[in-house]
């Protein structure tokens, strides 16, 4: 009797931003990666050729082995929404229409044929609705047998938010909010207005919010958004231009908020900080109301969350702390469009093929989000030799003790271990690490290494077994997607002078014993690290704890502004040499900056050609 051949399902997201591919084998995730990591184009929207090839290579199969190919939304329905919207807004929408249509006619309508040609796939290409893909990416890998599901983003086909229930292998969405009324696009409008780039600068807006006062909340609620008790809302489109034009906001919006949009790269003012604080407060209010209503409708205490708004870790923290009724939260680590590749594949496995879920109630199925490429010792050594790098190779225990000592001495370390993360967060595989106790470290990492704005916050990676001693966190946060207060025992009382400071003058005040990861409001975006999901990172943190009594370090992504997280040893070495990182650790190889040969370009040459977010 011949054994049953595995079923392979390939999921694809593409065409808008953060293209990605994911491959399932009998419902288990074999591999998943964003196209940007291979092309080095941040938020790359192109067809994910490289990500697909990686997934097939990781599985050790040819294209002919694919049983099903899935796409994460329905282009025909999306085009119908665009056409209907442009007709309704004519003639003001003519320019936008003329710019959009050639791309649709040339590329976006022919996804099925393009996938069949590229993959030599003779079967039908399956299409899921955009928000169903988001919902599936959150519920199916979650540790919950039954849960409420909420998705929030800019827009899919028509939906901008959806809510429903997952139960076993079934997933049903019962409610939705439709375009142009969108919490994600409201947030992006303020991202644009404060001078940051839409679809990448939302993190900056969230990071800027604690420096401001939410003095525009009443204006936003009175003029821009009508929020109902159940969290549903209606935007006043008189102030927005994203429906008919090429900008997010219009002149009415500018008059409402005291002047024109901030020019990108110009100095930040208190107005931008107050705008950030205000839209963040409104966003949190909507999310909490939606969750409270969803709990009342379903009676469930477990919630799954996805969509771009689910990357707002401050709002996620409020779901658990503001009495919504939900006790446990699972946020898909690739909550944005990249996660749609995973979601559409899982929707096909459990929905179309009616395959059951294996749920243990405790651990999710995302494998720590470590689903990307890894490199063996031979590949690392070859790459380092190509650069003439000087390195030492250490046994694992020796390496952990050595790196712990370097971190304790104030060194910034590039940490490259195992499989690359899927999603926007570095989780200890492609990370830059530093000592969170060092009061100068936030500024050093931002300006000298990451080469980004000084206000940007950093996250702590903490041993899961000690997280509750350092943060007001009752459960786990393995994917760095929940912001919570630093525990009072580690907080410092602020003196009157520091309390009186405003704006970016609040930087540099020591608010806790871990100042490099404590936000100005006393909170932190926590990653809990356990030995099951990431034993290598857990072992390093354990060595640091044994040496210092502190079970956490700064963990930020291994990249610089404008570039994706590094994927390969070559990229890690180049980033190491182009920045003021002190040490690079790639698998068991340790490199010290002062021992390396002279790098062939000056920092000024490199920064001059560096793309901006």
Describe this structure in words.
By secondary structure, the protein is α/β, with parallel strands linked by helices. It has 3 domains: 8-140 and 334-365, ATPase, nucleotide binding domain (Nucleotidyltransferase, domain 5); 178-331, 2-Layer Sandwich (Nucleotidyltransferase, domain 5), CATH 3.30.420.40; 377-608, DHBP synthase. Helix content is 35%, strand content 17%. It has 21 helices and 21 strands. The strands form 4 sheets. The protein has a 9-stranded mixed beta sheet with strand order 13-21-20-14-15-19-16-18-17, with helices on both faces. Strands 3-2-1-4-5 form a 5-stranded mixed beta sheet, sandwiched between helices. Helix 7 packs antiparallel against helix 11. The longest helix is centred in the middle third of the chain and has 29 residues, at 270-298. The termini are far apart. The mean pLDDT is 92.
Overall morphology: globular
Q: What is the CATH architecture term of the largest domain?
A: Alpha-Beta Complex
Helical residues, percent: 25-40%
Indicate the structural class.
Answer: alpha/beta
Short précis:
The chain has 21 helices and 21 strands. With 613 residues, the protein is α/β, with parallel strands linked by helices.
Helix-strand layout with pairing:
Layout: E1 8-13, E2 20-25, E3 28-34, H1 36-39, H2 49-59, E4 68-71, H3 75-89, H4 94-106, H5 111-119, E5 125-127, H6 130-139, E6 146-152, E7 159-167, E8 170-178, H7 183-193, H8 202-208, H9 217-224, E9 225-227, E10 233-235, H10 251-256, H11 270-298, E11 302-306, H12 313-321, E12 328-331, H13 339-352, H14 377-386, E13 392-393, H15 396-408, E14 413-416, E15 430-434, H16 441-449, E16 459-463, H17 467-470, E17 482-485, H18 496-499, E18 523-529, H19 535-548, E19 552-557, H20 569-578, E20 583-586, E21 589-592, H21 603-608
């Amino acid at each position: 009797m011949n054994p049953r051949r595995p079923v392979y399902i390939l999921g694809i997201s593409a065409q808008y931003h953060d293209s990605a591919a994911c491959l399932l084998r009998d419902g288990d995730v074999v591999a998943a990666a964003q196209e940007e990591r291979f092309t080095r184009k941040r938020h790359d929207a192109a067809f994910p050729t490289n990500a697909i090839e990686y997934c097939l290579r990781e599985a050790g199969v040819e294209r002919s082995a694919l049983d099903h190919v899935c796409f994460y939304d329905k282009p025909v329905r999306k085009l119908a929404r665009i056409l209907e919207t442009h007709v309704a807004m004519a003639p003001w929408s003519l320019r936008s229409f003329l710019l959009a249509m050639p791309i649709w006619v040339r590329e976006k309508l022919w996804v099925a044929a393009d996938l069949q040609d590229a993959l030599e796939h003779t079967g039908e290409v399956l299409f899921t609705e955009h928000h169903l893909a988001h919902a599936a990416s959150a519920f199916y890998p979650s540790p919950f047998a039954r849960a409420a599901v909420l998705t929030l983003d800019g827009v899919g086909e028509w939906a901008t938010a959806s809510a429903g229930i997952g139960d076993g292998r079934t997933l049903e969405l019962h409610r939705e909010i439709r375009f142009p009324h969108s919490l994600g696009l409201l947030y992006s409008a303020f991202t644009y207005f404060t001078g940051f780039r839409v679809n990448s600068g939302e993190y900056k807006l969230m990071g800027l919010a604690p420096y401001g006062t939410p003095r525009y909340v009443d204006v936003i609620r009175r003029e821009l958004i009508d929020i109902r008790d159940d969290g549903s809302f209606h935007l006043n489109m008189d102030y927005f231009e994203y429906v008919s034009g090429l900008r997010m906001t219009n002149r009415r919006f500018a008059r409402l908020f005291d002047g024109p949009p901030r020019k990108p790269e110009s100095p930040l003012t208190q107005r931008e900080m107050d705008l950030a604080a205000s839209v963040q407060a409104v966003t949190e209010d909507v999310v909490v109301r939606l969750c409270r209503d969803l709990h009342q409708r379903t009676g469930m205490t477990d919630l799954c969350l996805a969509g771009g708004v689910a990357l707002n870790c401050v709002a996620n923290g409020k779901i658990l702390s503001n009495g919504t009724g939900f006790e446990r939260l699972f946020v898909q680590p690739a909550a944005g469009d990249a996660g749609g590749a995973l979601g559409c594949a899982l929707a096909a496995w459990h929905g179309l093929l009616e395959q059951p879920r294996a749920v243990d109630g405790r651990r999710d199925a995302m494998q720590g989000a470590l689903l990307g490429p890894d490199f063996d010792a031979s590949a690392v050594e070859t790459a380092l030799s190509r650069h003439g790098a000087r390195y030492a190779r250490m046994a694992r225990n020796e390496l952990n003790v050595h790196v712990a000592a370097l971190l304790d001495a104030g060194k910034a370390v590039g940490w490259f271990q195992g499989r690359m993360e899927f999603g926007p967060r570095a989780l200890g595989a492609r990370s830059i690490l530093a000592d969170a106790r060092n009061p100068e470290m936030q500024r050093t990492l931002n300006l000298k290494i990451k080469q980004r704005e000084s206000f940007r916050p950093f996250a702590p990676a903490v041993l899961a077994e000690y997280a509750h001693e350092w943060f007001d966190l009752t459960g786990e946060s393995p994917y760095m997607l929940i912001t919570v207060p630093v525990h009072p025992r580690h907080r410092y009382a602020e003196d009157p002078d520091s309390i009186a400071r405003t704006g970016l003058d609040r930087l540099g005040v020591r608010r806790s014993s871990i100042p490099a990861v404590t936000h100005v409001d006393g909170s932190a975006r926590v990653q809990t690290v356990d030995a099951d999901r990431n034993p290598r990172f857990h072992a390093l943190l354990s060595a640091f704890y044994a040496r210092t009594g502190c079970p956490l370090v700064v963990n930020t992504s291994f990249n610089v502004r404008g570039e994706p997280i590094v994927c390969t040893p070559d990229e890690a070495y180049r980033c190491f040499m182009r920045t003021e990182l002190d040490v690079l650790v790639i698998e068991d190889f340790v490199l010290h900056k002062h021992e390396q040969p002279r790098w062939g370009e000056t920092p000024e040459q490199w920064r001059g050609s560096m793309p901006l977010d």
